[in-house]
Structures are given as structure tokens and as C-alpha cells.
Amino acid sequence: MKYFDYKAPDRAEAKDARVSCIGFGGMRFPRNEDGTIDRKAAGALIDRAMEAGINYYDTAYPYHGGESESFFAEALGKYPRSSYYLADKLPVWKLEKREDVRTIFEEQLKKCNVDCFDFYLCHALSRKRYDFICELSVLEELEKLRAEGKINRLGFSFHDNADALEYILSGYDWDFAQIQYNYLDYTMQDAKGQQEALVRHGVPFLIMEPVRGGALINVPKDGLELLKNAGGGSVPSYAIRYAASADGVFCVLSGMSDFNALEDNIATASNFVPVSDNEKDMLSKVADIIISARLLPCTECRYCEGCPSGIDIPATLKLYNAYMSSEDKKTLRSETDKFPARPVSCIACNACTSVCPQHIDIPAAMKELAKLTEKPQ
Ligand code: SF4
Ligand code: SF4
After folding, report:
1. Ligand 1: which residue has its CA nearest to atom 8?
2. Among residues 44, 171, 235, 279, which is most buried (max CB within 10 A)?
3. How far apart are alpha carbons 86 and 67 in whole angstroms?
């Protein structure tokens, strides 16, 4: 297993750490039919990850409807606390007053059954959310928790543009950050500008969404051919290697749902080789192919859960992308029939768009899908 040295910024109180190249993201565990985590299957994944030397585990308050934290308590509880790093995140959007920080934090410690978080993040900061936590003195409260030994390293995960990141980095001395970075977002969402800002500020970072919720695995045919002909490993391994080759990165998070994904990542991280310039050129061509296929950049994060019309938004958008790659209208119609609610039931309330970190125009996609799936009267 390849390990990166997390070097705390000079000014920071945080300690250095040795972190596995791959971190286990806790938002895509295998599920039971009722939607709860299949604890037996997910526990087996964690056991294999520990055995392979993966030592970074990432959870958050809303993952799996709140079950991810307590699942980690169970799955990691049998291992010595010093054998893994546990990261959790403050659901900034739930805060109404400064005191809520401590209440939620203590609840998280209890759910995870730990005394401290090795890495603790303000979840999904944007410029607006950063201003909000400053107004509420959230960072002062988190510093108190750090002084009490309950937070070892304090950072944030980020969803906004490079200017907003510069603003957030200039406003506070962070120990680390977490950004979305992959060979598609490098230009499409200016991940390049974000990575450069982090390096400039000397803030080490983790990468989330290295395969962009599967978009860099389910690549259109022409892109797949390029990847396969390059002969450098599996399709996902390119995305992981690309992310892990970024200057300043100390861990690449992957939300692994099954053994195929886990073993593939373990193999990539165990024989890690940074991407070459030729491979970078090839990946940028693959990115162009994906962009020209007009696929929606849904990462299946499920932040949009709770559609009032009962639409399973990520599953529906996945179908949309499959159609855009294949233009198979018959399959599109038959698959839509299996959903609890059809795209046509979208009432364009925009509840989903307001929380989507990828800024997808979901009602527009539902409208387009409705045209394709509803038979003319
Ligand atoms: S805009 Fe449509 S898809 Fe989104 S939450 Fe509202 S009804 Fe559901
Ligand atoms: S539509 Fe947006 S919020 Fe919903 S799962 Fe996809 S990326 Fe996440």
C-alpha cells in the first residue's frame, strides 16, 4: 500500500500523519432492500480494507441517513484506535446558533464511539456557508474542541469555485481541505485552480469523487477504447492514479460498494505509479469525449434525497446518462417504468437544485426525460 505523509502546515497545531493513498468513503455502502446499510457485506469490505492497509475512514452526519457514523463504530470498533484515522464532518447547514456545534459534535463522537476525530471538517463549504460559520463563531467553538483534544486536525470539504476557495483559505489557517478533483473536473469545474490555490496556501488536501460518482468508469465507447488501448490498468485505476498524482494531495477517497471496486483500488494503491504526461494527454481526450456526450455530472451523493414527488433523482439521472450514451429509447422507457415516480411527476420545485453540489439543472433534465419516456396521448 502506498502511503502519503500528511505534513501539517507550519503554523498549525496539528500533528503529521502517514495516510494510505486510498481512503474509504462511507457514503456508498451496500444496502439492504429497506435502504439500511447491509452491515455484514459492508463490514466485510472494511475488514479487507484494514487488512490491505487502508487507514483513512471518512464519514459524515448525513451519510446513509445518519447510519454511516454508527456503522463505522461497529466495523472499526474491533481494531486498535491507533490503527486508523477517522474523519467526520460538521453539518454546517443544521446550525442555528454557536451552541449547536458542540451538541452535534458530541452526538457524532457518541455515534462513532470514539473520544476524538483525527480529521474533522466543516462539511461542504461554499463562500456563503463560510460567511455563515464566521457569523456564528463556529471556528472558535471548534478550536475549543481541538484544545480539549477532541479534534486532531481541522479542515473543510468544499463545493464552490476557485475564487471562493481562495477566499476561504485567506480567511482562516486550516489544517487541511477536501476538494473534488478528477480528470473531468480539472477543467470543467476548475479543479486545477482549486488545487493551485491549496498549494499556494500550503494546505494539504484530500480528494473526493476521483471517479465522479462512476462517470469516469461508465465512459462513452470512444473514451473506453482510449483507456483500454493505453494498457496502463483498469478504467477506474486511471482516475485514482490521476487524483493521487496531484501535487499536495495526501489521500484519495473512494466510496466503495463492493469487492470489485475495493480490490481494484487496493491493486492501484499497492502498485501506485503517478500518471505520465502521455497518460495525462490521453485522459484529457477522454474528458473531452465525456463532455461532448453531454452527460449530467451527478455523483450520486444523494444530498437531493426527499423529492416531494417521490422521484429517485440520482437513479433517474443515471438512466438519463445511459440514454445519452446509447440513445436506446426502449430501454429508457422500460427502466423508467420500474421507478417509484416518473420524471414527468417533477413539479420543478427546485428543492433538489438548491442542494446539489454539482449545480445540475435537475428539473430541466426531468422535463427532457419526460418528453422521451411519456407516450404521446
Ligand atoms: S425539482 Fe423536481 S426532481 Fe427536484 S425535488 Fe422538485 S419535484 Fe423533485
Ligand atoms: S443530483 Fe446532485 S445532489 Fe443529487 S445525487 Fe446527483 S450530484 Fe448529488
Report:
1. 307
2. 279
3. 15
Domains, in order of start, for the chain:
3-292 (3.20.20.100), 313-373 (no CATH)
Q: What are the C-alpha distances in Å from 191 to residues 176, 181, 360?
A: 16, 5, 17
Task: Spell out the alpha helix ranges (H) of the chain.
Answer: 39-52, 67-76, 99-112, 127-135, 138-147, 162-171, 185-188, 191-200, 221-230, 235-244, 259-270, 277-292, 313-326, 329-337, 362-373
Mutation test of ligand 2: which of 123, 302, 311, 354 has the most ligand atoms closer than 8 Å to its C-beta? 302
Q: How far apart are CA 213 and CA 273, in angstroms?
A: 23
Cα separation of 266 and 20, whole Å? Answer: 10
342 contacts 371 by C-beta, under 8 angstroms: no
Q: Tell me if residue 253 falls in helix, strand or coil.
A: strand
Other C-beta atoms within 10 Å of 30: how many?
A: 16
Whole-prediction pTM: 0.86
Distance between CA atoms of residues 165 and 331, nearest Å: 42
- List, for residues 24-55, the tens digit of each pLDDT value: 999 999 999 999 999 999 999 999 999 999 99
What is the average per-residue pLDDT within 221-227? 92
Our answer on whether the CB atom of 234 is closer than 6 Å to any ligand 1 atom is no
Of 4, 49, 58, whose CA–CA distance to 245 is shortest?
Answer: 4
